[in-house]
């Protein structure tokens, strides 16, 4: 036993005396200008994180920052998602440093879920301002929950006082103009925001308030607010949404957020809350969280809040006219939900001419097709003549090509022949391997041999020859390094691929619309309609499952992006622009 103990004592002596430096990601976030004033600006947070890391001998490999609320959905926080992806993929990263945990997330449940998920990848979130918590102890569990609950409670308190201040602001009248202040946001079409300086803050900064005034910008020879009055009077007389849209586009009046008007824009303008504002009322709290519409009983309405463009009687006439109008008999758009029978809707199928989504439509007779979204909303303005792509034929074409791609990936021999060589080539390029290095090395060998012969023959310019020889030898060493690759190119687990492909075929044949829609989005990169050429191009890609099989890192992303162009199917439409004539697919490998 004593001999074994002696061996154990001697074992650490051969190990390095110092452990490798821990590597971390730095994360900083601000959501309001007030945080800049309190010393929580992004540069200040990153500076404090850097100083903290230097004290603990931590190496920061990358810094991430964002100006967004921690309560926003993660889809609206791209930098935060990029930071999380780097933490999960980079095995050398073991820490994420933040100024305080509220910078990470204020939602206690989301924050704890994310932190626990990161621990599965060996990554800890470390805060400079919060106490160090031993999460393995009972007290640590309580302290962690209390810390996140404190952050969430503080955020909710700030939101409460912010809403309270907004409500008071819209009911406060300017002492000079007599109009009520606005909380911000884009004014209604026909109005513009006018900024007023009303005193100074304690820090000496001016207090800026905003009111609405009629927009007197000249468009097509008249002020915008006069065009607004004319359109609202037309709506009161019974003009349809399409007629209002065509009137504005015909007079070259730009829409509030784009160049061309659409029927949906006029639908929003003629809603009750907007008509109240056109009649001079201030309206607040129309929408709540996630843009959900609040009932009118919860609206805050202030009379004579700004100069009206129409009377209350005219606003009531618009409401009555809208009720009398029947829904148009033009093409009816299908639901964009996940269970929609239109498998290519929701942004996968796009018009190449204007970039709008191709939307599922059907006539009252039951004819179904895909159509550029500009047609039903703005009568093709900004795009051009409509091209109709029959639903059944284009969807069958996409699925047929998908089955061919599945067959390609499910065949190990074909996969090896077509893909492995490309993977190796891209792997070498990513690691800085010069494909022309062997040829350059041969040329260098010849130059080096000639310089050495000149030195042996007693060249008169010996210093130049020696300096040139050193340059050639250094270039030779650099090229020699670029011909070697550390590691090996990523490879696919073919057993997993084959299982996945079998399940893919089963879902294509017997899956629900929701399952088939999700499956198509895994395999199809994009679908583009070229209206002038009457062609539909379908590009397939490597599914995310295979991306994971290739491993993490920038090289794998580059490889998968390149393989996304491994199969392209091209179909031509009939010259009448109404029927899809299926042609021979064109493969690009």
Overall description:
The protein is of the alpha+beta class and 589 residues long. The chain folds into four domains: 20-155, Rossmann fold (3-Layer(aba) Sandwich); 191-324, Alpha-Beta Complex (Hect, E3 ligase catalytic domain fold), CATH 3.90.1750; 330-433 and 489-589, no CATH class; 434-482. It is 46% helix and 16% strand. The chain has 21 helices and 19 strands. It has helices spanning 2-10, 33-37, 42-55, 78-89, 101-104, 108-120, 138-170, 224-236, 241-250, 263-269, 272-278, 312-324, 374-378, 391-410, 412-430, 437-456, 462-482, 494-510, 513-523, 544-550, 554-563; strands at 22-30, 58-67, 93-98, 124-127, 191-200, 206-214, 218-219, 222-223, 282-284, 300-302, 332-333, 349-351, 358-362, 368-372, 389-390, 524-530, 535-540, 567-573, 580-581. A five-stranded mixed β-sheet has the order 12-16-17-18-19. A hairpin with a 6-residue loop joins strand 18 (567-573) and strand 19. It is extended. It starts with a helix and ends in an 8-residue tail after the last strand. 25% of the residues are buried. Residues 11-18, 33-39, 327-336, 547-568 and 575-589 have low confidence and may be disordered.
């Amino acid at each position: 036993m004593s001999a074994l103990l002696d061996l154990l004592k001697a074992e650490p002596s051969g190990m390095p005396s110092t452990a490798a430096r821990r590597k971390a990601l730095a994360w900083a976030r601000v959501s309001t200008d007030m945080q800049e004033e309190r010393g929580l600006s992004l540069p200040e947070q990153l500076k404090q994180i850097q100083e903290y890391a230097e004290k603990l001998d931590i190496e920061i490999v990358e810094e991430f920052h964002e100006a967004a609320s921690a309560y926003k959905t993660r889809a609206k926080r791209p930098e935060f998602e990029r930071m999380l992806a780097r933490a999960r993929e980079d095995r050398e990263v073991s820490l994420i440093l933040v100024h305080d945990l509220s910078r990470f997330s204020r939602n206690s449940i989301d924050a704890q879920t994310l932190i626990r998920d990161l621990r599965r990848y060996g990554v800890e979130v470390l805060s400079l301002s919060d106490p160090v918590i031993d999460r393995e102890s009972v007290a640590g569990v309580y302290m962690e929950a209390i810390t996140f609950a404190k952050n969430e409670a503080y955020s909710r308190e700030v939101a409460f006082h912010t809403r309270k201040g907004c409500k008071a602001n819209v009911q406060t009248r300017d002492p000079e103009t007599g109009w009520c202040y606005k909380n911000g946001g884009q004014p209604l079409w026909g109005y513009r925001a006018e900024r007023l300086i009303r005193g100074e803050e304690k820090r000496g900064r001016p207090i800026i308030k905003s009111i609405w005034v009629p927009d007197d910008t000249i468009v097509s020879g008249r002020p915008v607010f006069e065009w607004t009055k004319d359109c609202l009077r037309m709506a009161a007389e019974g003009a349809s949404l399409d007629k209002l849209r065509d009137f504005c586009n015909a007079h070259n009046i730009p829409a509030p957020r784009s160049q061309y008007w659409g029927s949906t824009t006029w639908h929003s303008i003629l809603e009750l809350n907007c008509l109240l504002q056109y009649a001079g009322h201030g309206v607040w709290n129309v929408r709540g969280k996630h843009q959900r519409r609040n009932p009118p009983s919860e609206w805050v309405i202030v009379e004579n809040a700004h100069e009206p463009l129409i009377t209350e009687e005219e606003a009531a006439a618009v409401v009555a006219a809208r009720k009398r109008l029947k829904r148009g008999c033009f093409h009816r758009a299908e639901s964009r939900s996940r269970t929609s029978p239109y498998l290519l809707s929701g942004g996968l199928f796009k018009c190449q001419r204007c970039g709008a989504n191709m939307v599922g439509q059907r006539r009252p007779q039951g004819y179904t097709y895909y159509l550029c979204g500009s047609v039903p909303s703005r009568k093709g303005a900004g795009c051009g003549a409509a091209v109709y792509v029959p639903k059944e034929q284009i969807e069958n074409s996409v699925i047929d090509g998908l089955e061919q791609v599945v067959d390609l990936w499910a065949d190990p021999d074909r996969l090896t022949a077509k893909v492995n060589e490309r993977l190796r080539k891209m792997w070498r390029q990513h690691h800085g391997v010069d494909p022309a290095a062997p040829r350059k090395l041969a040329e260098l060998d010849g130059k080096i041999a000639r310089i050495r012969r000149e030195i042996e023959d007693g060249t008169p310019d010996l210093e130049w020859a020696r300096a040139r020889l050193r340059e050639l030898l250094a270039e030779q060493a650099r090229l020699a390094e670029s011909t070697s690759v550390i590691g090996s190119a990523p490879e696919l687990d073919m057993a997993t691929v084959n299982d996945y492909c079998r399940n893919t075929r089963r879902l294509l044949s017997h899956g629900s619309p929701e399952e088939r829609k999700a499956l198509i989005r895994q395999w199809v990169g994009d679908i583009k309609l070229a209206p002038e050429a009457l062609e539909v191009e379908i590009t397939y890609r490597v599914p995310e499952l295979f991306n994971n099989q290739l491993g993490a890192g920038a090289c794998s992303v580059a490889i998968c992006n390149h393989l996304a162009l491994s199969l392209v199917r091209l179909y031509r439409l009939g010259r009448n622009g109404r029927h899809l004539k299926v042609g021979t697919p064109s493969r690009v490998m």
